[in-house]
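Page 37, continued from 36.
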């Protein structure tokens, strides 16, 4: 699949699923994650390795990338009224639009919590904040704020300001994509 060893891919899956809350929401949040190729988090880990970083240290960042990607898919399916994704009913088709919006928003929030776990991997707090800002500026984060006026109002209330830039390796701070 990707030039990542099986133990690293297994650790990535464990990192992602460790963030999911308990039932009943867990099933709804894990549903869009099932069957994905994990291309984006693999690129994050490979880029980190490519600049001399430890990909195991970057696992929370890779999990955050996968979670925000799935957030964007859940919301995109609602906006496009897509009944299927990966040959299965979409989240909104299975649980309804209101629950799918909640699930997508939860995936967005979990992507941020994933990045905060970088600090537990001895990544300096400044780099953790930079990674969070850069993830917010990723296309999915921008789209979240641009298509939801209530999210813009919430962001303004909390003095949220997205920043330009690419995602970075937590070890080196260098752009990874």
């Amino acid at each position: 699949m990707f030039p990542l060893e099986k133990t690293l891919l297994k650790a990535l899956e464990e990192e992602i699923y460790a963030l999911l809350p308990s039932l009943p929401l867990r099933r709804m949040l894990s549903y869009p994650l099932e069957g994905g190729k994990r291309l984006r988090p693999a690129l994050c880990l490979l880029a980190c390795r490519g600049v001399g970083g430890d990909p195991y240290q970057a696992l929370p960042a890779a999990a955050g990338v996968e979670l925000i990607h799935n957030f964007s898919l859940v919301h995109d399916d609602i906006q496009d009224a897509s009944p299927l994704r990966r040959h299965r009913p979409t989240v909104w088709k299975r649980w309804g639009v209101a629950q799918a919006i909640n699930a997508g928003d939860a995936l967005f929030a979990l992507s941020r919590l994933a990045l905060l776990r970088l600090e537990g991997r001895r990544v300096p707090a400044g780099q953790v904040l930079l990674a969070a800002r850069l993830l917010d500026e990723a296309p999915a984060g921008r789209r979240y704020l641009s298509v939801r006026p209530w999210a813009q109002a919430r962001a303004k209330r909390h003095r949220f300001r997205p920043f330009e830039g690419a995602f970075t390796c937590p070890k080196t701070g260098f752009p990874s994509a």
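The chain is about 60% helix and 0% strand. Flag for discussion at group meeting. Confidence is low (pLDDT under 50) at residues 144-152, 154-177.
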